Every structure is written in C-alpha cells, then in structure tokens.
Amino acid sequence: MGQLTTHVLDTMNGCPAAGMAVTLWRVGEASALRSLVLNHDGRADGPLLQGEAFTPGRYRLVFGVAAYFRARGVVLPEPPFLDEVPLDFGIADTAAHYHVPLLASPWAYSTYRGS
Hints:
Layout: E1 3-10, E2 15-16, E3 21-26, E4 34-37, E5 49-50, E6 57-64, H1 65-71, E7 84-91, E8 97-104, E9 109-111
Parallel strand pairs: 1-8
Antiparallel strand pairs: 1-2, 1-5, 3-4, 3-6, 6-7, 8-9
C-alpha cells in the first residue's frame, strides 16, 4: 500500500528539525489537506497520506523554515531569505512509497525522493 511521508534535517545545527510546521496541499485546491508539527526526530508521526486519501495528483508541502529557525534563536532579517519553503511534487503510483525529505538552513535547502 502506498503512502506519503516526510522529514526535515536542520543542516545549520546538524540535527532533526523538531518542531517545524508543515502543511500539505493538493495543488489547485483551496484548503490544506493536513497541517502538523514535526516530532523530536524531525518526522511526521505517521504518513501524511495513505489508503483512500493517497490518490494520483500534484501536491505541495510547505515547510515553515524561518519560524523554525527563529524559534531556535537564529536572528534573521526581515524579510528572511527563506520564509516558507514550498515543494511541489507528483504522485503517479499509488502502490509506491513517496518520501519527501527536506534539508534546510536559513539560507539554503535541498530535497530528493527518498525511500
């Protein structure tokens, strides 16, 4: 059975991004599918999508990067270089596991399709 998961690593401090806010959207829809705060390991406590909710389409994860780093005491300019980081991706195979990790600092980020 397919599912969508995520996690975030704080590359500035070399640790999981515990406490970062994340919102999941289906591209083109007006309301969020899910909003959550990452746990102590920088992960969602369970899949973001699975079962009947896990359907093909275009999705967006929005990560609250600036708020996370400010909460850790990092002084950021206003506006910050990175505020919310949106990642758009597609789900084609509902039998597959889609893992969308983010590696983030206040000044850079990267992502990939994980396992």
